[in-house]
Design a protein that fits this description.
Strand content: 5-15%
Radius of gyration: 19 Å
Order of helices and strands: EHEHEHEHEHHHHHHH
Strand order of the largest sheet: 2-1-3-4-5
Length: 262
Protein backbone atom coordinates (compact mmCIF):
# COMPACT_ATOMS: atom_id res chain seq x y z
CA UNK A 1 0.00 0.00 0.00
CA UNK A 2 1.44 3.36 -1.06
CA UNK A 3 2.24 5.86 1.68
CA UNK A 4 0.10 8.99 1.87
CA UNK A 5 2.08 12.19 1.52
CA UNK A 6 0.85 14.96 3.82
CA UNK A 7 1.65 18.43 2.58
CA UNK A 8 2.60 21.12 5.06
CA UNK A 9 0.75 24.43 4.82
CA UNK A 10 2.89 27.48 5.58
CA UNK A 11 1.39 30.27 7.70
CA UNK A 12 3.80 33.18 7.46
CA UNK A 13 1.76 36.21 6.29
CA UNK A 14 4.58 36.63 3.76
CA UNK A 15 3.73 36.40 0.09
CA UNK A 16 5.63 36.55 -3.17
CA UNK A 17 4.38 38.85 -5.94
CA UNK A 18 5.81 38.04 -9.38
CA UNK A 19 5.28 40.44 -12.30
CA UNK A 20 7.63 41.79 -14.97
CA UNK A 21 5.87 45.16 -15.07
CA UNK A 22 7.17 47.70 -12.53
CA UNK A 23 3.88 49.59 -12.34
CA UNK A 24 2.01 46.35 -11.63
CA UNK A 25 4.47 45.47 -8.87
CA UNK A 26 4.14 48.87 -7.18
CA UNK A 27 0.33 48.85 -7.27
CA UNK A 28 0.11 45.19 -6.26
CA UNK A 29 2.56 45.64 -3.39
CA UNK A 30 0.56 48.51 -1.96
CA UNK A 31 -2.72 46.61 -2.22
CA UNK A 32 -1.25 43.59 -0.42
CA UNK A 33 0.42 45.67 2.29
CA UNK A 34 -2.93 47.33 2.99
CA UNK A 35 -4.29 43.82 3.62
CA UNK A 36 -1.53 43.24 6.17
CA UNK A 37 0.83 40.96 4.24
CA UNK A 38 4.62 41.19 4.11
CA UNK A 39 5.72 41.24 0.48
CA UNK A 40 8.66 39.97 -1.55
CA UNK A 41 8.86 41.02 -5.19
CA UNK A 42 10.18 39.22 -8.27
CA UNK A 43 10.34 40.52 -11.85
CA UNK A 44 10.31 37.15 -13.65
CA UNK A 45 10.10 33.41 -13.14
CA UNK A 46 13.81 32.99 -12.44
CA UNK A 47 13.73 35.53 -9.62
CA UNK A 48 10.61 33.78 -8.29
CA UNK A 49 12.48 30.46 -8.13
CA UNK A 50 15.36 32.11 -6.26
CA UNK A 51 12.97 33.66 -3.75
CA UNK A 52 11.09 30.38 -3.31
CA UNK A 53 14.38 28.60 -2.56
CA UNK A 54 15.21 31.11 0.17
CA UNK A 55 11.89 31.81 1.91
CA UNK A 56 8.60 30.23 2.93
CA UNK A 57 5.46 31.88 1.55
CA UNK A 58 1.80 31.65 2.47
CA UNK A 59 0.92 32.08 -1.19
CA UNK A 60 2.39 33.32 -4.47
CA UNK A 61 0.78 35.71 -6.95
CA UNK A 62 2.30 34.81 -10.31
CA UNK A 63 2.01 36.71 -13.58
CA UNK A 64 1.59 34.29 -16.46
CA UNK A 65 3.40 35.87 -19.39
CA UNK A 66 6.93 37.07 -18.57
CA UNK A 67 10.33 37.10 -20.31
CA UNK A 68 13.17 34.72 -19.42
CA UNK A 69 10.92 32.25 -17.57
CA UNK A 70 7.14 32.64 -17.65
CA UNK A 71 4.71 31.97 -14.84
CA UNK A 72 3.60 28.58 -16.12
CA UNK A 73 7.17 27.28 -16.36
CA UNK A 74 8.12 28.73 -12.98
CA UNK A 75 5.09 27.11 -11.36
CA UNK A 76 5.89 23.72 -12.84
CA UNK A 77 9.45 23.95 -11.48
CA UNK A 78 8.20 24.98 -8.03
CA UNK A 79 5.81 22.04 -7.96
CA UNK A 80 8.69 19.73 -8.90
CA UNK A 81 10.76 20.96 -5.96
CA UNK A 82 7.82 20.68 -3.57
CA UNK A 83 7.47 16.95 -4.15
CA UNK A 84 10.74 16.52 -2.26
CA UNK A 85 9.85 19.09 0.43
CA UNK A 86 6.39 17.66 1.25
CA UNK A 87 4.94 21.17 1.18
CA UNK A 88 2.69 22.99 -1.25
CA UNK A 89 2.30 26.74 -1.51
CA UNK A 90 -0.86 28.06 -3.20
CA UNK A 91 0.02 29.77 -6.49
CA UNK A 92 -2.53 32.19 -7.92
CA UNK A 93 -2.17 33.25 -11.53
CA UNK A 94 -2.54 36.88 -12.59
CA UNK A 95 -3.49 37.41 -16.20
CA UNK A 96 -5.17 39.98 -18.41
CA UNK A 97 -7.28 37.16 -19.88
CA UNK A 98 -9.65 35.17 -17.68
CA UNK A 99 -11.26 32.85 -20.22
CA UNK A 100 -11.78 29.16 -19.51
CA UNK A 101 -8.81 28.32 -21.76
CA UNK A 102 -6.57 30.59 -19.64
CA UNK A 103 -7.76 28.90 -16.45
CA UNK A 104 -7.17 25.44 -17.93
CA UNK A 105 -3.57 26.31 -18.88
CA UNK A 106 -2.87 27.66 -15.41
CA UNK A 107 -4.37 24.70 -13.57
CA UNK A 108 -2.54 22.26 -15.82
CA UNK A 109 0.77 23.96 -14.96
CA UNK A 110 0.08 23.47 -11.25
CA UNK A 111 -1.52 26.79 -10.31
CA UNK A 112 -4.45 26.79 -7.89
CA UNK A 113 -6.57 29.67 -9.11
CA UNK A 114 -6.64 32.66 -11.42
CA UNK A 115 -7.26 36.38 -10.96
CA UNK A 116 -7.95 38.80 -13.80
CA UNK A 117 -5.95 42.03 -13.93
CA UNK A 118 -6.26 44.59 -12.50
CA UNK A 119 -6.30 42.74 -9.19
CA UNK A 120 -9.07 43.98 -6.91
CA UNK A 121 -9.28 43.51 -3.16
CA UNK A 122 -12.59 41.69 -3.02
CA UNK A 123 -11.63 39.27 -5.80
CA UNK A 124 -8.31 38.51 -4.12
CA UNK A 125 -9.91 38.00 -0.69
CA UNK A 126 -12.51 35.66 -2.18
CA UNK A 127 -9.78 33.50 -3.73
CA UNK A 128 -7.83 33.45 -0.46
CA UNK A 129 -10.91 32.43 1.50
CA UNK A 130 -11.39 29.44 -0.79
CA UNK A 131 -7.81 28.42 0.10
CA UNK A 132 -8.45 29.05 3.82
CA UNK A 133 -5.87 31.84 3.86
CA UNK A 134 -6.75 34.54 6.38
CA UNK A 135 -6.21 38.22 5.62
CA UNK A 136 -4.13 39.80 8.45
CA UNK A 137 -5.94 43.15 8.30
CA UNK A 138 -9.68 43.21 8.93
CA UNK A 139 -11.51 43.95 5.70
CA UNK A 140 -15.13 45.01 5.78
CA UNK A 141 -15.61 47.81 3.29
CA UNK A 142 -16.84 46.53 -0.08
CA UNK A 143 -15.50 48.12 -3.23
CA UNK A 144 -17.94 50.51 -4.82
CA UNK A 145 -18.70 50.01 -8.48
CA UNK A 146 -17.51 52.89 -10.62
CA UNK A 147 -19.87 53.99 -13.40
CA UNK A 148 -18.35 53.54 -16.84
CA UNK A 149 -17.98 56.82 -18.72
CA UNK A 150 -15.61 58.11 -21.35
CA UNK A 151 -13.47 60.12 -18.93
CA UNK A 152 -12.90 57.21 -16.57
CA UNK A 153 -12.23 54.87 -19.48
CA UNK A 154 -9.30 57.14 -20.38
CA UNK A 155 -8.01 57.31 -16.80
CA UNK A 156 -9.92 56.28 -13.68
CA UNK A 157 -7.81 58.23 -11.21
CA UNK A 158 -10.33 57.75 -8.40
CA UNK A 159 -10.09 53.96 -8.61
CA UNK A 160 -6.29 53.93 -8.78
CA UNK A 161 -6.00 56.37 -5.91
CA UNK A 162 -8.24 54.15 -3.76
CA UNK A 163 -6.10 51.11 -4.58
CA UNK A 164 -2.91 52.84 -3.45
CA UNK A 165 -4.43 54.07 -0.22
CA UNK A 166 -5.07 57.66 -1.25
CA UNK A 167 -1.34 58.33 -1.55
CA UNK A 168 -1.28 61.22 -4.03
CA UNK A 169 2.52 61.43 -3.94
CA UNK A 170 2.80 57.80 -5.02
CA UNK A 171 0.17 58.43 -7.69
CA UNK A 172 2.37 61.19 -9.10
CA UNK A 173 5.39 58.86 -9.09
CA UNK A 174 3.44 56.10 -10.87
CA UNK A 175 2.17 58.51 -13.50
CA UNK A 176 5.65 59.96 -14.06
CA UNK A 177 7.10 56.48 -14.57
CA UNK A 178 4.25 55.27 -16.79
CA UNK A 179 4.16 58.37 -18.99
CA UNK A 180 7.96 58.36 -19.31
CA UNK A 181 8.35 54.65 -19.98
CA UNK A 182 5.44 53.97 -22.34
CA UNK A 183 6.83 55.86 -25.39
CA UNK A 184 10.03 53.80 -25.08
CA UNK A 185 8.05 50.56 -24.88
CA UNK A 186 5.84 51.57 -27.83
CA UNK A 187 8.97 52.31 -29.85
CA UNK A 188 10.34 48.82 -29.14
CA UNK A 189 6.96 47.32 -30.01
CA UNK A 190 6.87 49.27 -33.29
CA UNK A 191 10.33 47.94 -34.19
CA UNK A 192 9.29 44.36 -33.42
CA UNK A 193 6.16 44.69 -35.55
CA UNK A 194 8.20 46.26 -38.37
CA UNK A 195 10.58 43.30 -38.54
CA UNK A 196 7.71 40.82 -37.99
CA UNK A 197 9.23 39.55 -34.74
CA UNK A 198 6.09 37.85 -33.47
CA UNK A 199 7.38 36.63 -30.10
CA UNK A 200 8.85 39.98 -29.06
CA UNK A 201 5.85 41.95 -30.33
CA UNK A 202 3.37 39.75 -28.44
CA UNK A 203 5.43 40.05 -25.23
CA UNK A 204 5.72 43.82 -25.55
CA UNK A 205 2.02 44.33 -26.34
CA UNK A 206 1.01 42.07 -23.45
CA UNK A 207 3.32 43.86 -21.02
CA UNK A 208 2.08 47.32 -22.04
CA UNK A 209 -1.52 46.12 -21.87
CA UNK A 210 -1.03 44.90 -18.30
CA UNK A 211 0.55 48.16 -17.22
CA UNK A 212 -2.23 50.21 -18.80
CA UNK A 213 -4.92 48.14 -17.10
CA UNK A 214 -3.25 48.50 -13.71
CA UNK A 215 -2.94 52.25 -14.26
CA UNK A 216 -6.72 52.23 -14.84
CA UNK A 217 -6.30 53.32 -18.46
CA UNK A 218 -8.96 50.94 -19.78
CA UNK A 219 -9.28 52.37 -23.28
CA UNK A 220 -5.51 52.26 -23.81
CA UNK A 221 -5.38 48.70 -22.52
CA UNK A 222 -8.06 47.60 -24.97
CA UNK A 223 -6.07 48.89 -27.94
CA UNK A 224 -2.96 46.98 -26.85
CA UNK A 225 -5.14 43.90 -26.42
CA UNK A 226 -6.10 44.27 -30.09
CA UNK A 227 -2.45 44.67 -31.06
CA UNK A 228 -1.50 41.54 -29.14
CA UNK A 229 -4.27 39.52 -30.76
CA UNK A 230 -3.49 40.83 -34.28
CA UNK A 231 0.19 39.89 -33.98
CA UNK A 232 -0.71 36.46 -32.61
CA UNK A 233 -2.69 35.97 -35.83
CA UNK A 234 0.33 37.18 -37.90
CA UNK A 235 -1.60 40.28 -38.95
CA UNK A 236 1.28 42.72 -38.57
CA UNK A 237 -0.45 45.36 -40.71
CA UNK A 238 -3.40 45.48 -38.32
CA UNK A 239 -0.97 45.53 -35.40
CA UNK A 240 0.83 48.54 -36.88
CA UNK A 241 -2.44 50.38 -37.54
CA UNK A 242 -3.68 49.69 -34.01
CA UNK A 243 -0.37 50.96 -32.62
CA UNK A 244 -0.97 54.30 -34.35
CA UNK A 245 -4.35 54.41 -32.61
CA UNK A 246 -2.67 53.50 -29.31
CA UNK A 247 -0.35 56.49 -29.61
CA UNK A 248 -3.38 58.79 -29.92
CA UNK A 249 -4.99 57.16 -26.87
CA UNK A 250 -1.76 57.64 -24.95
CA UNK A 251 -1.69 61.36 -25.77
CA UNK A 252 -5.26 61.63 -24.49
CA UNK A 253 -4.29 59.75 -21.32
CA UNK A 254 -1.32 62.05 -20.80
CA UNK A 255 -3.47 65.17 -21.22
CA UNK A 256 -6.24 63.92 -18.91
CA UNK A 257 -3.86 62.72 -16.19
CA UNK A 258 -1.89 65.98 -16.31
CA UNK A 259 -5.09 68.05 -16.13
CA UNK A 260 -6.29 66.02 -13.15
CA UNK A 261 -3.01 66.70 -11.34
CA UNK A 262 -3.21 70.49 -11.71
Amino acid sequence: MAATVEYVKMQTNRILLVDDNKTNRVVGELLLKKLGFAIDLAANGREALEAFASHSYEFILMDVQMPELDGLEATALIREKERMLCSRVPIIAMTAGAEEADRDRCIKAGMDDLLAKPIRREALIKVLEVRSISVPTEFTKPEESVPADRHKAVFNEEDLLETIGGNSELLGTLLEYFVGDLPVQMGLLEEAIGRKDKETAVQKAHRIRGGAVNMRAAALGQVFSRIEEAVRQDDFEEGANALKEAKKHFETFREVSARNRQ
